[in-house]
């Protein structure tokens, strides 16, 4: 039974809270994912050594600035877990990472090649205005060089962070724009061309691409693809497990 600063909390209370917050299903899925990973790791003779657990524990301590053993124990107590619980969590994370690498590291380059277009990038600026008439007025003002895109974004964008950054959205992958239908519009534009207002969810988006960047299999993208393939595999394994249990 968990003890929160001297107050006992029944396990049934935790379960009921998760139900009320619609979080119980997600927690159950994660528990089953953990079982699947452990079983598959055993089948592939994958294990985690104490030295590997210690190395990651030391890294986490440095990140949290836990310089002394007493600092670590105090932090663990505040998290309501024992050192063994922490180490078990680290072991689970390392096991999942090792398993994903063993199963899918050779598939990453193929996935990247088959979906290369999705990894093309654009340095994108965006200006979102809630009113159609104002959006077109701002568009024509930019076209006629009465105001720059950056000035307009600083003045009119509904998002505070974009206003502060004069419309800078970031380096965006083509695949990130697919759901909004903007990928073809953005990637057919010319660099620094102002794309006329596009209506999305009752708002009007003016877009500008500063520069296009070719698809490149960086370490970051490698890890993203690896995680995607592993997540899809976990979902399929869970579905199979649930099907067998029916």
From TrEMBL:
GO terms for molecular function: peptidyl-prolyl cis-trans isomerase activity. Residues 132-209 form the PpiC domain. InterPro entries: PPIase_dom_sf, PPIase_PpiC, Trigger_fact/SurA_dom_sf. It holds the Pfam family Rotamase. It comes from Microcystis aeruginosa NIES-3787. This is PpiC domain-containing protein.
């Amino acid at each position: 039974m968990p003890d929160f600063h001297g107050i006992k909390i029944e396990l049934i209370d935790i379960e009921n809270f998760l139900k009320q917050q619609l979080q119980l299903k997600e927690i159950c899925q994660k528990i089953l994912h953990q079982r699947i990973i452990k079983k598959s790791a055993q089948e592939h003779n994958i294990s985690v050594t104490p030295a590997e657990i210690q190395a990651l524990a030391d890294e986490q301590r440095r990140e949290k600035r836990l310089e002394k053993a007493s600092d670590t124990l105090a932090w663990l107590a505040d998290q309501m877990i024992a050192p063994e619980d922490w180490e078990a969590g680290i072991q689970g994370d390392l096991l999942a990472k090792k398993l994903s690498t063993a199963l899918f590291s050779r598939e990453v380059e193929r996935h990247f090649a088959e979906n290369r277009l999705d990894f093309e990038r654009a340095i994108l600026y965006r200006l979102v205005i809630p009113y159609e008439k104002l959006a077109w007025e701002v568009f024509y003002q930019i076209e006629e060089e009465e105001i720059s895109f950056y000035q307009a974004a600083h003045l009119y964008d509904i998002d505070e962070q974009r206003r502060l950054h004069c419309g800078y959205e970031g380096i965006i992958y083509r695949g990130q724009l697919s759901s909004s239908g903007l990928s073809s519009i953005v990637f057919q534009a010319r660099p620094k061309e102002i794309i006329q207002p596009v209506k999305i969810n009752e708002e009007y988006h003016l877009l500008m691409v500063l520069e296009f960047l070719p698809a490149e299999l960086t370490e970051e993208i490698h890890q993203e693809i690896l995680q995607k393939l592993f997540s899809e595999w976990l979902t399929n394994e869970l579905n199979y497990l649930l099907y067998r249990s029916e």
